Amino acid sequence: MPDHSHVLVGLRPSIALSDLVRDVKNASTNFINGKRWVRGRFSWQEGFGAFSYGHSQLSGIIKYIQEQEQHHAKRTFREEYLRFLKKYEIEHDQRFIFKPIE
């Protein structure tokens, strides 16, 4: 999708999620800029969203990720993300909610 990426990982409890995201953002930013895939400098927005899953949910999550294009034809990622936050009563800071691509 042009405005977000999904990364499905299994993470050991000894690894901080924020460290993983920092490393993924850093490496992908360097790769994208090194390949000059975008005009100017690419950079990620501040913040990230993360959701945990149970092993029994894995096939449904994979299907959800694979069907992003069809799914977001009906609802933007931002709209969907805000619905998740509301549904699961997750406190959040509006400064870190995804901004639309201009």
Describe the 3D structure.
By secondary structure, the chain is an all-alpha fold. It has one domain. It is 42% helix and 0% strand. The protein contains four helices and no strands. The chain has helices at residues 17-35, 58-66, 68-71, 77-87. The longest helix has 19 residues, at 17-35. The model has no long low-confidence stretch (mean pLDDT 88).
Reconstruct the topology from this structure.
Elements: H1 17-35, H2 58-66, H3 68-71, H4 77-87
Q: Which features characterize this protein?
A:
mainly alpha; single chain; 102 residues; 0% strand; globular; 4 helices
Average pLDDT score: 88
Provide the domain count: 1
Major β-sheet, in short?
none
H and E string: HHHH
Total beta-strand segments: 0
Which segments are poorly predicted (pLDDT under 50) over 5 or more consecutive residues?
Answer: none
- Helical percent range? 40-55%
From the alpha carbons, calculate the radius of gyration and give it in angstroms: 15 Å
Number of helices: 4
Quick one: overall form? globular
* N-to-C span: 15 Å
Q: Pairing-aware structural class of the strands and helices?
A: mainly alpha
β content, as a range?
Answer: under 5%
Structure described in brief:
The protein contains 4 helices and no strands. With 102 residues, it is an all-alpha fold.
